[in-house]
Amino acid sequence: MERVGEVLQIRLGPERPADDGDGLGRTTLGWRPGMSEDEAWQAGRGIWKFNADRALSQDEVQIIDTAGTVLAVAKITGISKHGTRYALEGDLLRGDPRVGRPTTGPHLSRNPVTYL
Predict the structure, then answer these.
(1) Which end of the chain has fewer CB atoms surrounding its CB within 10 Å, N or C?
(2) How does pLDDT run along the chain (116 residues), one tens digit per residue?
(3) pTM
């Protein structure tokens, strides 16, 4: 499936415990082998420092692991503010054919969030 429009890409590091009081109620953050698309979406949708207007101008978000494998794809529908950071709101595209495959847009940034 060819990507259409602009894509926000979020790269997850290895799974680790979340801080107490995580704004999304998560107990862990990051990626682990075997996680579902839903788990990848919950891990990857926030909470990040990014330009809210630019994020909202993107059509989709790809959640990827450090090797560049797509873990989840979602249509961006909004954002929520958490202090000085944001979380994405969106519709997870379960079963998207890109999941489980290498991303076609390499993540060249050192930061976890980039725009393709």
Answers:
(1) N
(2) 444 568 999 999 999 999 888 999 999 999 999 999 999 999 999 999 999 999 999 999 999 999 999 999 999 999 999 999 999 999 999 999 999 999 988 888 889 999 98
(3) 0.91
Cα distances (angstroms) measured from residue 97 to each of 2, 13, 15, 19, 69: 10, 22, 24, 33, 12
Q: Determine contact, residues 44/103, Cβ cutoff 8 Å.
A: no
Number of Cβ atoms within 10 Å of the Cβ of 111: 11
User: Tokens representing 31?
Assistant: 């990626």
The pair of structure tokens assigned to 22 is 């995580």
* 72 in Cβ contact with 40 (< 8 Å): yes
Task: Give residue for tokens 């075997």.
Answer: 34
Within 13 Å, how many C-alpha atoms sit on residue 80's CB side?
A: 9
